[in-house]
C-alpha cells in the first residue's frame, strides 16, 4: 500500500515541567486518529513506532487495567516487575499475530506460566505539560534499569516519505499491523489526538445480507449489525460504519454490501470491518 501525503493539524506544546508521577491515571486514555500523513517537510517532527496488535493496558502504579478500566490480573511476579511510582500507557503484547491468544489469556485465570510470553510494551506516560518527545526521553531515563516483562517501544525518525514507506512495507511483510506516527510536541490528551496518527493497510471485500441483529442502547429499534455471508461461504456480523439513516433503513435481505477491514482473525474472518456501501444491482 503506497503512502500518501497531506497536511496534518498543528498544535503548540506548553512549557515543560517534570512529569508528575502522582497524577491520577483513571479517565486519561489517549487514542490515535486515522488522519492523512503529514507532508514530507513535517515528517522529521514525528516519532514513528510499530503499531502493536496487543491488549491496551494502563499501569496505575499499583494495578494493571484495560482500556475500559477493567482489572487485569497477571501473576504476582509480573506485577512486582513494574515500577510502583510511574504511570504507564502501553500494550500487553505476545508477538505479531497473537492477539486472540493474548486476549484469551488476559480474560482467563490459572495460566501463570503463559505470562512469561507476554511483555508490557510502554509507549507513553499520561503526564501534562510535556510534548511526546520529552515524555519518551523521560521514560528512557526512568525505565533504563527495568527488564522483562517491561519494555519501552522503540521510536524512529524519518526525513523522507520514501524511507517511511520502506519501513512500513517491511513491517507489513513481517506480519505487523502498521505504524504509529506521534508528533514530537503533542501533549497527552484524553480521547482522539489528531497529532497521533495510525497507519495500517485496509482491504475491502463483499458479503451478502442474510439477516440482521437488533440494535441496543442508542441503536434501540434500529439495525445493530448486518448478518453477512462472505464469498467463501463463511458468515459474520458487520456492525460498524453505518449512519443512523442506514440503521433505520438497512440494506435488504439478498443485497450485496462492500466493507473495509484490516487483517483476519484466527478463524479467517474480517477484523476491524466497516461498512462502505451497497453494491449497485447489475
UniProtKB/TrEMBL annotation:
Taxonomy, superkingdom: Bacteria
Reaction catalyzed: ATP + (deoxyribonucleotide)n-3'-hydroxyl + 5'-phospho-(deoxyribonucleotide)m = (deoxyribonucleotide)n+m + AMP + diphosphate
Pfam families: DNA_ligase_A_M, DNA_ligase_OB_2
InterPro entries named among the record's database cross-references: DNA_ligase_ATP-dep_cent, DNA_ligase_OB, NA-bd_OB-fold, NAD_dep_DNA_ligaseB
Keywords: DNA damage, DNA repair, DNA replication, Ligase
CDD domains associated with the record: Adenylation_kDNA_ligase_like, OBF_kDNA_ligase_like
Gene Ontology terms: biological process: DNA recombination; DNA repair; DNA replication
Biased composition (Polar residues): 1-20
GO MF assignments: ATP binding; DNA ligase (ATP) activity
CC cofactor: a divalent metal cation
Residues annotated as domain ATP-dependent DNA ligase family profile: 50-200
Annotated DNA ligase OB-like domain residues: 215-279
Region of interest called Disordered, as start-end residue ranges on this chain: 1-26
NCBIfam families in the cross-refs: PRK09125.1
Protein name as annotated: ATP dependent DNA ligase
Source taxonomy: Bacteria, Pseudomonadati, Pseudomonadota, Gammaproteobacteria, Alteromonadales
Amino acid at each position: 500500500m503506497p503512502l500518501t501525503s497531506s497536511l496534518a493539524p498543528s498544535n503548540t506544546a506548553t512549557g515543560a515541567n517534570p512529569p508528575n508521577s502522582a497524577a491520577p491515571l483513571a479517565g486519561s486514555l489517549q487514542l490515535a486518529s486515522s488522519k492523512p500523513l503529514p507532508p514530507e517537510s513535517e515528517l522529521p517532527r514525528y516519532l514513528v513506532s510499530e503499531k502493536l496488535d496487543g491488549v491496551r493496558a494502563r499501569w496505575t502504579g499499583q494495578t494493571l487495567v484495560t482500556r475500559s478500566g477493567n482489572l487485569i490480573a497477571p501473576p504476582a511476579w509480573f506485577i512486582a516487575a513494574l515500577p510502583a511510582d510511574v504511570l504507564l500507557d502501553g500494550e500487553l503484547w505476545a508477538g505479531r499475530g497473537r492477539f486472540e491468544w493474548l486476549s484469551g489469556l488476559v480474560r482467563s485465570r490459572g495460566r501463570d506460566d503463559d505470562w512469561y510470553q507476554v511483555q508490557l510494551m510502554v509507549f507513553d506516560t499520561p503526564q501534562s505539560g510535556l510534548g511526546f518527545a520529552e515524555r519518551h526521553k523521560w521514560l528512557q531515563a526512568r525505565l533504563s534499569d527495568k527488564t522483562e516483562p517491561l519494555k519501552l517501544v522503540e521510536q524512529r525518525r524519518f526525513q523522507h516519505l520514501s524511507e517511511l514507506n520502506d519501513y512500513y512495507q517491511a513491517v507489513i511483510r513481517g506480519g505487523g499491523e502498521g505504524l504509529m506516527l506521534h508528533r514530537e510536541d503533542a501533549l497527552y490528551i484524553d480521547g482522539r489526538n489528531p497529532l497521533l496518527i495510525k497507519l495500517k493497510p485496509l482491504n475491502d471485500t463483499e458479503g451478502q445480507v442474510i439477516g440482521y441483529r437488533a440494535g441496543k442502547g442508542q441503536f434501540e429499534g434500529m439495525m445493530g449489525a448486518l448478518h453477512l455471508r462472505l464469498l467463501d461461504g463463511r458468515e459474520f456480523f458487520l456492525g460498524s460504519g453505518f449512519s443512523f439513516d442506514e440503521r433505520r433503513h438497512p440494506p435488504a435481505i439478498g443485497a450485496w454490501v462492500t466493507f473495509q477491514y484490516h487483517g483476519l482473525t484466527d478463524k479467517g474472518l474480517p477484523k476491524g470491518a466497516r461498512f462502505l456501501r451497497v453494491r449497485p444491482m447489475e
